[in-house]
Amino acid sequence: MMKKVLTILFALVLFSMSTFAQVKDTCINIWQCEINYAYQFSLTDMKAKYNRNPSTMGIGLSFKTKHNWIFGFEGSYLWGGYDDKGVSILRNIKTQTGRIINSSGEYGTVLMTQSGFYVGIKTGYVIAFNKPNPNSGIVLNVGVGMLEHHIRIENRNNNTPPVLGDYKKGYDGLRNGIAARGFIGYQFLSNKKLVNFYGGVEYTFAWTKSRRNYDFNLRGKDNTQYHDSMIGIRIGWILPIYIHAPEEYYYY
Fold first, then answer.
1. What is the rounded CA–CA span in Å between residue 209 and residue 228?
2. Residue 3: what are its φ and ψ, rounded to 5°?
3. What top-level class would CATH report for the domain 2-245?
4. CB–CB of 60/100 below 8 Å?
5. Residue 219 burial (10 A CB sphere; 0-12, 13-18, 19+)
6. What backbone phi and psi angles, to 5 degrees, belong to 151?
7. How many secondary structure helices (H) and strands (E) does the chain include?
8. Which candidate, 120, 3, 12, 112, places its Cα nearest to that of 58?
9. How open is the CA angle 42-180-27, to the nearest 5 degrees?
10. Per-residue pLDDT in tens (0 to 9) along the chain, 252 residues
11. Minimal CA–CA distance to 153: which of 137, 140, 165, 141?
């Protein structure tokens, strides 16, 4: 699978390089393939659930018109550390020393991390400057999609029954829901080279609910309406594919 992804990415780079043009004087139609990373700070109900801040790695595809409007979609994977301290989510199956017994009567090793994803569509606008070209400038965009997250529970050697299979679903707190996202930053598209990037501040707010039928700690279904949000810095690399550019600036 990874080989296929790398092959497709390499083909896109070659195609993009074959169509590169100097665009210093003209605002043009551009397909933008994006790879990005963000460090987020959890807020509201999401902050109460996780005691560490998550990172996200994402991809996207957008179309920038010659009038600098942007339309696209994006997806990102969310991950982060998690310390099961304070009021432990596994408190009902832990010993007095805070450990969990495995099938051999020994202490089992249980690892917990944050995990989740966001997928959505977006629209925005580039407020262009004269330099380096009218395709670069301040970017404002908004989007709507779905946010999902949970506590990923892993048992080394798969020998601790209380956190295996369907049992761990009663502890992981899986929830998802409709999300809104806003971004403000700067986009730079060079005139000739592969140095194309963007960066800025991103805010995500989601209305989520538990998707598990039973929560062991609540001894029933969790019917709470949650308000999950994150704010952070996102930076990304853009692979532009120029649909048209002035003939006098084409390179062969």
1. 10
2. -60, -40
3. mainly beta
4. no
5. exposed
6. -95, 115
7. 2, 8
8. 120
9. 115
10. 545 544 554 554 444 444 444 556 678 899 999 999 999 999 999 999 998 899 999 999 999 999 999 999 999 999 998 888 777 899 889 888 888 998 888 888 999 999 999 999 999 999 998 777 888 999 999 999 999 999 999 998 889 998 999 999 999 999 999 999 999 999 998 877 678 999 999 999 999 999 999 999 999 999 999 999 999 999 999 998 877 654 444 443
11. 165
User: What b-and-e string marks burial along 118-132, b requiring 16 or more CB atoms within 10 Å of the CB?
Assistant: bebebebbbeeeeee
| Whole-number Å distance between alpha carbons of 240 and 155 | 43
* Segment (H or E) for 8: helix 2-18
Q: What angle do CA 223, 225, 230 make, to 5 degrees?
A: 135
